DNA sequence: GGAAAAAATTACCCTATGGTAAGAAAGCTA
DNA sequence: TAGCTTTCTTACCATAGGGTAATTTTTTCC
């Protein structure tokens, strides 16, 4: 719980009213490892703010292969934004990679917070801007770097995430197979 | 000019004050084909709202290859968000693919609009949410579709953009070479 | 702590896409 | 309309990464 306000307050000043409202609707929850919070094909109503641990969102394609869209650790938001925005069934699965703690919000609650508290809306806008920037960078990396370069960058950029993940999670995030990642790791080890 | 308000008003209600302020600072500009609005390596101060025509943002990698990040037609925003956000030099070039019309905003102006007019901030948040959703979809497509499938999807999803682009623009957006796109087009034609 | 399950590695061969270079077509511009 | 420039196509070969399956290593959990 505290984490949410730490995070938000570090970027904007929340009014007392906003703070009380947030407290009144949000409950921090412990989620055990491997629990699934959103399941591909089902309806999505919630967005999650992570206060501890690590979650992952991924989709399973028509050949049964997993593709990781996002990892989320402390202070990050995660959900199936595609489904929420298009009002369709989940295209993603969101799972807990380790015992974690989250705060969940449904769409109506978030709408209400945004409407009632402009400072929260401002926080969200900044958040989304950062998100867009990181997605732009990810797309450019995918277009111009080799698999090895993307792996190195991932390790440098998100050193805290590796401890929670299996190699095949990272491979599917980087857009390669587990086997290719394994070959890359062998090459790296040789140097 | 009118377009900006058409677009914004269709999603939110702007107060009279906000509208007057927007009018007072924004000037629509005609930009000729091939003009470059942001140049990789230089400083970035502006964000563009397109009212007619088509712009493109791309980066040139260390091997001299172009990678298209975004196309923007009427009612879309375009800039080098990476540079603006990280406060560094442009990693992207933004060019005009055809004679176009734009309204430009500098960061300070946008900040001021956001601060003074919560309804504009709300519009921007929704805009950014849509942007995040489309980037998520693009990343998933890149991970799970073949080049041919991505090309078909592009043509279906953005039928209005093709008229403004060269094939190598589209190829570099899809993450393939111009030659590969050409081979794909030949295959498609056969069927 | 040990059996069972899951993940990672490795070897072998395969395929989609890349690179180069030459020629054809289309688009400008005088 | 001719000539120049840019874009597109095609052929040929190269390569990064994929697929399968067997083996080893690590993790899970009773």
Report on the architecture of this protein:
In chain A, 50% of the residues lie in helices and 22% in strands. The longest helix of chain A is centred in the last third of the chain and has 27 residues, at 118-144. Chain A has a domain at 2-117: Jelly Rolls. In chain A, the strands form two sheets. A four-stranded antiparallel sheet of chain A has the order 1-8-3-6. In chain A, strands 2-7-4-5 form a four-stranded antiparallel sheet. With 191 residues, chain A is an alpha+beta fold. In chain A, helix 4 crosses helix 5 (118-144). The first copy, chain A, binds a DNA duplex (30 and 30 nucleotides) through helix 8.
Write the layout of secondary structure elements.
The structure is a homodimer of 191-residue chains.
Chain A (H helix, E strand, L loop, with lengths): L1 H10 L4 H10 L2 E4 L4 E3 L7 E7 L1 E7 L5 E8 L3 E2 L2 H6 L6 E4 L3 E7 H10 L1 H27 L2 H11 L9 H8 L3 H13 L1
Antiparallel strand pairs in A: 1-8, 2-7, 3-6, 3-8, 4-5, 4-7
The first copy, chain A, binds a DNA duplex (30 and 30 nucleotides) through helix 8.
Residue fraction in strands of chain A: 15-25%
Per CATH, the superfamily of the domain at 2-117 in chain A is Jelly Rolls
Number of helices of chain A: 8
Percent helix of chain A, as a range, is 40-55%
- Regarding CATH, which class of the domain at 2-117 in chain A? Mainly Beta
| Separation of the first and last Cα atoms of chain A | 45 Å
State the strand order across the main sheet of chain A: 1-8-3-6
- Structural class based on helices, strands and sheet pairing of chain A: alpha+beta
Largest interface: A-B, 33 and 34 residues
**Which sequence of SSEs, written as H and E, runs from N to C of chain A?**
HHEEEEEEHEEHHHHH
Q: Radius of gyration of chain A in whole Å, from Cα?
A: 18 Å
**CATH level-two architecture of the domain at 2-117 in chain A:** Sandwich
CA-based shape of chain A? globular
Find the count of extended strands of chain A (DSSP E, 2+ residues).
8
Oligomer: homodimer
Largest sheet of chain A: 4 strands, antiparallel
């Amino acid at each position: 719980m505290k984490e949410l306000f730490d995070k938000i307050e570090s970027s904007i000043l929340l009014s007392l009213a906003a703070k009380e409202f947030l407290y009144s609707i949000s409950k921090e929850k412990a989620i055990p490892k491997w629990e699934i919070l959103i399941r591909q094909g089902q309806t999505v109503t919630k967005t999650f703010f992570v206060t501890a641990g690590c979650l992952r969102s991924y989709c399973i394609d028509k050949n049964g292969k997993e593709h990781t869209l996002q990892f989320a650790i402390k202070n990050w938001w995660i959900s199936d934004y595609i489904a929420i925005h298009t009002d369709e069934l989940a295209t993603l699965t969101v799972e807990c990679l380790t015992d974690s703690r989250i705060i969940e919000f449904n769409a109506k609650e978030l709408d209400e917070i945004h409407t009632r508290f402009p400072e929260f809306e401002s926080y969200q806008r900044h958040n989304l801007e950062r998100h867009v920037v990181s997605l732009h960078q990810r797309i450019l990396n995918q277009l111009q770097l080799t698999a090895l370069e993307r792996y190195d960058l991932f390790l440098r950029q998100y050193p805290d995430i590796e401890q929670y993940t299996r190699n095949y999670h990272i491979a599917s995030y980087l857009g390669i197979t587990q086997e290719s990642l394994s070959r890359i790791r062998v090459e790296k080890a040789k140097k």
